[in-house]
Design goal:
One of its GO terms (molecular function) is hydrolase activity, hydrolyzing O-glycosyl compounds. InterPro entries: Beta-glucanase-like, ConA-like_dom_sf, Glycosyl_Hydrlase_16. This is GH16 domain-containing protein. Pfam families: GH16_XgeA. It is a single chain. The chain is of the alpha+beta class. The strands form 5 sheets. It has a 7-stranded antiparallel beta sheet with strand order 1-2-19-9-14-15-16, with no helix packed on it. 14% of the residues lie in helices and 28% in strands. The two termini are 32 Å apart. The structure holds 2-acetamido-2-deoxy-beta-D-glucopyranose (6 copies).
């Protein structure tokens, strides 16, 4: 992110004056302000996907890619599922980046994905590819950040502790084993909330199905932050003396995107060793020829809340 954007006006920032706020500043993104506070990225896909990221006007004109559902206000971010064999650079889609960037805080969202890769780190809260059924939470960093994963669900596995693995490209992934947290299982239950507490000592992620959201997340507003210490065992946690979080993760904006193929999912060996191999010899070929397969490939976002300025309870 250019630093001018770092300083751009965020959303309503209110200071809580009560005595119990854990965090005191809150940016609340929802259908009323999302398209003012997030920018359409319409350059070449940094992950080299078979994708054509649209500008806001193009996206809105196509009414496929980005608009607000008026009946129940939420943010729809989809992609083209009608055009067969789109020309290069690929299938129309959108990639939205928050104007504001953040270093540490409490993030509450259906879904979020964070860039500035890899020297200022990247935190992928919700990410998967091809026919994955479960989410993988991954941190990507510059050299010298080795994590452990204490206290997370026993079924969550930190498969590589080195967040700079493969020069940061692979990062340190924690695989999870709740198929309601990703893809078809997630959509079937109406989704849920991903929450992340990012502070100087840990990066901690929770997933709550919509039917099991903590009361303080449901009640969260600009004045009152929820309290992660009451949420129970996290889905993924990253901490330990091997990584100075403050120096490896900074200035992250929030990104929502849908891309096709590219450096990860599109690699011949990744495609070829997944169930997708039965569909077509190569990822781009499949994506080009099968628009209807992407009708369900959209985000629907109710809200994203970001709390900053941690204060211990009662100190304000
Ligand atoms: C993060 O943003 C601050 C404020 O704009 C800037 O001073 C700092 O250089 C940025 N750091 C990085 C790594 O981009
Ligand atoms: C949507 O966000 C705005 C701006 O932060 C906030 O004032 C408003 O209360 C939010 N709407 C709902 C329904 O929470
Ligand atoms: C966010 O950034 C976009 C494009 O850079 C700009 O048009 C928009 O005015 C910005 N929003 C705010 C609230 O500053
Ligand atoms: C899309 O166009 C409609 C109709 O002109 C407008 O009401 C809406 O605000 C636009 N949305 C965006 C994201 O530009
Ligand atoms: C995905 O989650 C399901 C249960 O929801 C589990 O049975 C399966 O083993 C998980 N897969 C992986 C690769 O962890
Ligand atoms: C950082 O977040 C973790 C996870 O919620 C929490 O256990 C820890 O107390 C926090 N540390 C600080 C210094 O706030």
């Amino acid at each position: 992110m250019p630093s001018t954007q770092v300083l751009a006006f965020g959303v309503t920032t209110l200071l809580a004056t009560g005595t119990s706020a854990l965090y005191t500043g809150c940016d609340h993104y929802n259908a009323s302000n999302f398209f003012n506070e997030f920018s359409f990225f319409n350059e070449a896909d940094p992950t080299q996907g078979f994708v054509n990221y649209l500008s806001m006007d193009q996206a809105n004109l196509s009414s496929l890619a980005a608009f607000t559902l008026e009946a129940s206000p939420s943010i729809f971010l989809g992609g083209d599922y009608k055009t067969a064999n789109p020309p290069n650079p690929g299938r129309n889609s959108v990639r939205l980046t928050s104007n504001k960037s953040y270093a540490q805080g409490l993030f509450i969202a259906d879904i979020a994905h964070m860039p500035n890769w890899p020297n200022s780190g990247e935190i992928d809260i919700l990410e998967g590819f091809n026919e994955n059924m479960n989410n993988t939470v991954t941190l990507h960093s510059g050299e010298g950040c080795v994590m452990s994963g204490p206290g997370s669900l026993p079924t969550s596995i930190l498969t590589n502790p080195n967040c700079n693995a493969n020069n940061g490209f692979d990062g340190c992934p924690t695989s999870t084993s709740n198929n309601q947290g990703y893809g078809p299982g997630f959509n079937e239950i109406g989704g849920g909330v991903y929450a992340m507490e990012w502070n100087s000592s840990a990066i901690t992620v929770w997933f709550f199905p919509r039917s099991a959201m903590p009361a303080d997340i449901i009640a969260a507003n600009e004045m009152t932050s929820p309290d992660p210490s009451k949420w129970g065992t996290p889905t993924a946690s990253f901490s330990g003396p091997g990584c100075d979080i403050g120096s490896h993760f900074k200035n992250h904006s929030i990104v929502f995107d849908t891309t096709f193929c590219g450096q990860w999912a599109g690699q011949a060996e990744v495609w070829g060793s997944s169930p997708c191999a039965a569909l077509a010899p190569a990822c781009n070929q499949y994506v080009a020829a099968n628009p209807a397969a992407f009708q369900d490939a959209y985000w629907l976002i109710n809200k994203v809340m970001v709390y900053q300025d941690y204060e211990a309870a009662g100190t304000k």
